[in-house]
Amino acid sequence: MRAFQKITSRVIPVDRSNVDTDAIIPKQFLKSIKRSGFGPFLFDEWRYLDRGEPDMDCSGRPLNPEFVLNVPCYAGGEILLARENFGCGSSREHAPWAIADYGIRVIIAPSFADIFYNNCFKNGLLPIVLDATIVDRLFAECGPGYALTVDLKEQVIQTRYGESIHFDIDPSRKHRLLNGLDDIALTLQRADEIRAYEARRAQQAPWLFATH
Amino acid sequence: MTGKTLYDKLWEDHLVAQDPDGSALIYIDRQLVHEVTSPQAFEGLRLSGRKPWRTAANLAVADHNIPTKDRDQGIADPISRLQVQTLEDNCKEFGITEFSMSDPRQGIVHVMGPEQGATLPGMTIVCGDSHTSTHGAFGALAFGIGTSEVEHVLATQCLVQRKARNMLIRVDGKVGPGITAKDIVLAIIGKIGTAGGTGYAVEFAGDAIAALSMEGRMTVCNMAIEAGARSGLIAVDETTIDYLRGRPYAPKDELFETAAETWRRLRSDVDAAFDAVITVDAASIRPQVTWGTSPEMVCPVDGKVPDPTQESDPVKRESIQRALSYMGLEPGTPLTAVNVDKVFIGSCTNARIEDLRAAAEVVKGKSVAGSIKLALVVPGSGLVKQQAEEEGLDQVFTEAGFEWRDPGCSMCLAMNADRLEPGERCASTSNRNFEGRQGYGSRTHLVSPAMAAAAAIYGHFVDIRSI
Ligand code: SF4
Q1: Letter string b/e over residues A86-97, b meaning 16 or more CB atoms within 10 A of that residue's CB
Q2: A104: which DSSP letter?
Q3: B434 C-alpha to ligand 1 centroid (Å)
Q4: What order of strands is seen across the sheet that includes strand B165-172?
Q5: Chain A neighbors of B319, CB-CB under 8 A
């Protein structure tokens, strides 16, 4: 997994609450058996005026000029600024894949849906929860040329006006993200503990270990 | 000392290791696998040279992409076909049991699991699908996970998790005639909102929940995720145990009785402390219909489409406005005056035998209104289909003008050929009314099976209590 330390980037404001995973990546793209290549279809229904299909070449598609990703001063930003309950809906990891594939590294919102929030960390994305009033202010400040610096190690966001905003993050997630560690390898280091649990549990509830 | 909640008990029973920072390694008893969220997980396993930790803990089925008719001709869409084929290949390679498209046990993963007894009380159950919350109806801790976690469970039989907070939603008293589990859960979501349960494991309790069949309880837990909760839970009682007796994957004979003894303890202690408690008066629940593009945008069928100008919160006003313009609805319109184009009876929320019976009861001897372009019944599994055919329900539906299909997710998310055209309005028994969910530009109204059936007969929503 890609490590995350510190970035400075322009900010893409997606000013809607309850942005669901169907909006982030519509279901027709879930048919892919790959993990990459979803970036051009990020926010497909909002971003384009036609209907997107998997494997389409997006370079010639009609763009919705109103949608923020199509506004030149925001395009290519690595920080997404969002409203409450971002990523609600399905468990599809295609949503963080699409966001990460587009090049976004950080999402700032007052709240996230649980599964989406978890999925972000598996994909080198840093979701940051900030107070709604601070998010409101960032939306107000955000505009062409607006950039933020996000420093994971220090757990701080710096605005262009010299303000430092602290954010919280679970220490183990921070450690994994900073070092780009593979979760499975970490868990497999505890194989003995898992086997001991299984042996214990099989005594109490043998039916859980039936082999059909 | 305060007692423990059902969730506390399930959590403790599965704790492999607790880290000081609050994250924990928990053991997963059952993983259900389907074609959409697994290919990248198997790919990851292969790339790292890993093997499944405990093959028998996994059970696979294709459901999302599966065609619901002309199955003998295979899957027409090449991308869907590849995804279903990839699941089959992966299961073969790693030795995982899969119910293929021609197997009568094939069906929607959340219908198939309980039906097979692969869902048991006291288990931890995961699947790369948010509606895994369904299985919590059995007193199991069940939640949806992402594909990286699917791979993690395949490789380690564990997940790194943090404990959620406890919420109790108590539905007290008795529901009125015609009120179903779907109305109960929609009313709850209308009350607490789509983020109301975020961060919580939600236990549903109270007389009205205890009175539900297992099918009804699954409907309620299925939609816990629409209230933001990854898992919904219902305590084990004799209804649970009776449902499981004799199921293929459930323990047999004496072992079943031993298991049942432990299962009966899977309930919250009377003095358990919840972080949040919500109570709902069952008698006040009326048949529910969603009017917007989020399950919380719901109101009783005898109500009206809301007027955004009455809303003082500007963010809410704006979202009501946006939803109404997407849905093509005028403020103040009575819901019973809203005409529908298509009707969908199916999905992991409402495609079990009891749901089909309830719909058939309404349909019996009547016909679908001439204005309805398509009325679909898609049973949740091959076995539900068989059972319904034995009871003659297929006849009731087809004689009325419904199409009777093969099992799968179908028009719940329109990944196969079953979908709405832009602007079409559907009375649907599924669980999500998001923009584009049932097809590009689709307009979905979530309702119970009986309400969907009635909408098919009358061509518009009707109060099921009045017919
Ligand atoms: S029926 Fe719908 S909600 Fe249920 S698993 Fe299938 S697609 Fe998901």
Answers
A1: bbbbbbbbbbbb
A2: -
A3: 13
A4: B231-233, B200-205, B165-172, B276-281
A5: 17-18
Residue B45: closest CA among chain A residues belongs to which residue? A184
Residue whose Cα lies nearest atom 2 of ligand 1: it is B412
pLDDT above 90 covers a percentage of chain A that reads: 76
Structure tokens, A20: 């669901």
Q: Which atom of ligand 1 is nearest to the CA of B63?
A: 6
Mind listing the domains of chain A with CATH numbers?
A: 6-180 (3.20.19.10), 182-212 (no CATH)
Residue nearest (by alpha carbon) to ligand 1 atom 4: B348
How far is the C-alpha of B235 from the C-alpha of B237, rounded, in Å?
A: 6
Q: Regarding beta strands B443-446 and B298-300, do their DSSP bridges make them parallel or antiparallel, or are they unpaired?
A: unpaired
For residue B414, report the distance from its CA to the centre of ligand 1, in Å.
10
Decide if A211 touches B, using CB distance below 8 A: yes
B25 contacts A187? CB cut-off 8 A = yes
Distance between CA atoms of B301 and B286, rounded to whole angstroms?
7
E strands present in A5-118: 6-14, 79-82, 106-109
In angstroms, how far is the first alpha carbon of chain A from the final one? 35
- Alpha-carbon distance of B130 to B150, in angstroms, equals 12
- Report chain A residues whose CB lies below 8 A from the CB of B156: 184, 187-188, 191, 194
Q: Which of A28, A55, A30, A50 is nearest to A40 (CA)?
A: A55
Structure tokens at B107: 């069906």
Residue B82 burial class via C-beta count within 10 angstroms: exposed 0-12, middle 13-18, buried 19 and up: middle
Interface test with B, best of A48, A84, A90 (most B CBs within 10 A): A90
- Whether residues B79 and A32 touch (CB distance < 8 A) is answered with yes
**pLDDT the model gives residue A30:** 85
**Distance from C-alpha of A212 to C-alpha of A36, rounded to nearest angstrom:** 35
Q: Which of B83, B106, B129, B350 to mutate to test the pocket of ligand 1 (most atoms within 8 A of CB)?
A: B129
Residue B444 vs residues B317, B335, B350: alpha-carbon distances, Å: 20, 13, 15
| pLDDT (average), residues B330-345 | 98
Of A23, A169, A25, A147, nearest in space to A81 by CA: A147
Structure tokens, B43: 């790919």
The ipTM of this complex is 0.94
pTM of the predicted structure, to 2 decimals: 0.89
Residue A196, number of CB atoms within 10 A of its CB: 13
The label of the residue with tokens 């945008």 reads B297
A81-138 pLDDT, tens digit per residue, is 999 999 998 778 899 999 999 999 999 999 999 889 989 998 899 999 999 999 999 9
Inter-chain CB proximity A193 and B25 less than 8 Å? yes
* B10 Cβ closer than 6 Å to some ligand 1 atom: no
Euclidean distance between CA atoms A122 and A181, whole angstroms = 9
The pLDDT tens digits for B146-196 are 899 999 999 999 999 999 999 999 999 999 999 999 999 999 999 999 999
Pair of tokens at residue B350: 């409402």
CB atoms within 10 A of CB B425: 22
Nearest Cα neighbor of B27 from A195, A172, A212 is A195
Contact at CB, A207 and B120, closer than 8 angstroms: yes
Neighbours of B421 (CB within 10 A): 13
